[in-house]
Design a protein that fits this description.
Order of helices and strands: EEEHHEH
Helix content: 25-40%
Strand content: 15-25%
Number of domains: 1
Radius of gyration: 19 Å
Structural class: alpha+beta
Distance between the termini: 27 Å
Length: 136
């Protein structure tokens, strides 16, 4: 059973001792915690888990601030390896989410395409069909 975001297994790590020697130790394994996804509205709240970052460009209506922030959060989580950072890392983590959100917003507003805009409902239905084929 997971406690505090970690489960019983361990993984190896290394640290430097005061004398300059390498010392190996064990770290707890992180556990994935279900997170809400702006694209998963049909999934019950206790079953939501977003494992990948969704495309936000070329949809009608445009991506919301919540969707942009959710994708930035997933990106920072992936880069950092933290689902929720420690108190000491929280400020840097939050700053990174804000900076990535701002960069994503600038990117989305500066991109252009001649392709027709995609409909969110149609794309969501396609994703559900792919999921049924994949998971039964």
């Amino acid at each position: 059973m997971a406690v505090g975001g970690f489960e019983g297994g361990e993984r190896a790590g290394y640290s430097m001792t005061k004398s300059g020697l390498m010392h190996d130790f064990a770290l707890p394994r992180p556990v994935a915690v279900p997170q809400a996804c702006a694209f998963c509205d049909e999934i019950p709240e206790d079953k939501k888990m977003c494992r990948n970052i969704k495309t936000l460009f070329n949809f009608e209506p445009l991506a919301t601030e919540q969707e942009i922030r959710a994708s930035a959060l997933q990106f920072v989580r992936k880069l950092s390896g933290f689902n929720k950072p420690s108190h000491g890392n929280a400020q840097a983590f939050d700053r990174a989410v804000e900076e990535v959100s701002a960069a994503a917003r600038r990117l989305l507003t500066s991109l252009h395409t001649h392709a027709p805009t995609r409909d969110r409902e149609v794309e969501a239905e396609k994703a559900r069909e792919r999921s049924k084929l994949r998971f039964g």
